[in-house]
Amino acid sequence: MNDDLQELGERFSQIADQYDDIHTSDEKPIYNACATRVIEGANPIPDDVVLDLGTGTGLIALALAEDAGVVLGRDISDGMLATAAAKAADNGFENVEFGYGEFHDPNIDEDIDIVVSNFALHHLPDEQKREAIATIGALTPQRFVLGDAMFFGSPTPDEPLFDHGVDAATVGTLVDVLTDEGFVITAVERVHDQVGVLIAEHRGDTPSGTRNAPFDK
Ligand SMILES: C[S@@+](CC[C@H](N)C(=O)[O-])C[C@H]1O[C@@H](n2cnc3c(N)ncnc32)[C@H](O)[C@@H]1O
Fold it and tell me: Which residues form the pocket of ligand 1, taking CB atoms under 6 Å from any ligand atom?
C-alpha cells in the first residue's frame, strides 16, 4: 500500500465508529438516495457473488447480503473493515466476508457476478479511475453499479456539494471509460447535479432473462 492510501485508510479508521450514525441520518439525504439506488440497481439473485469495492462499514454490502449468495467487501481502511465485520457478526450474516482490497488490486479469487461501489471511486484522480475500472472490467462481472459524486453539469459548479477529498469525474468521462473497458451503460440515475448512479452490464453477459433487471424486484 502506498503512503497516500495508508493515510486515507487511517483517516477513515478514525471516523469508523461514527460513520453509520452520520451517513444513515437525515444529515445525508443525497448519500442515502444514492445508496438506495445502488442497492436497488445491484438487485442480486441468491446465486450471485457480489463484490463491494470501497465497502467502508459495509452499509451497501450488508444490505445486498439479504438477497445475494455471497458478498465480498473490500476496503483499504482497517477501522472501517473492523466495523463492517463486527456488524456482520452481530447480525448473524454468514455470507459476507470483509477484507483488505484496493480498487487496483481487489484481492479476489472468486468469479464475481456483480460489482458495486458507492461513494469511493472519487478518491482516485481520473487517470486512476480508468485503471480501477479496467481492473473491474477484467473481473468480467455481469453488472457494475457505480454510485458516486459525478458531474451531470459543469465540472466546476458554482456551488460545489463537496470540498476536499472528492475528485469527481464528469458523467461523460465515466461513461467513456466504462465503455472502453467492456461495459454497456444500461441506466444513468441522476440523484443530484453532482451525484449519480451508473449501471453497466459487461459485454459478453449471460443470456438475458437469467437475472433480475436493475431496480426490478
Ligand atoms: C465515503 S466511504 C464509502 C463507504 C461505503 N461504500 C458507503 O457507501 O458507505 C469511502 C470508502 O472508500 C475507501 N477507499 C478509498 N480509496 C480506496 C481504494 N483505493 N481502494 C479501496 N477502498 C478505498 C475508504 O477507505 C472508505 O472506506
Answer: 5, 8-9, 12, 23, 35, 53-56, 59-60, 75-77, 80, 102-103, 118-120, 123
The pLDDT tens digits for 179-195 are 999 999 999 999 999 99
Structural domains in the chain, CATH included, are 3-202 (3.40.50.150)
Phi, psi dihedral angles at 157 (to 5 degrees): -65, 150
Q: Give 142-186 as a DSSP string.
A: SEEEEEEEEESS-SS-SS-S--TT--PEEHHHHHHHHHHTTEEEE
Please give the average per-residue pLDDT across 88-112, as a whole number: 97
Q: Whose CA is nearest to atom 13 of ligand 1?
A: 54
Query: Is 150 within 8 Å of 169 (Cβ atoms)?
Result: yes
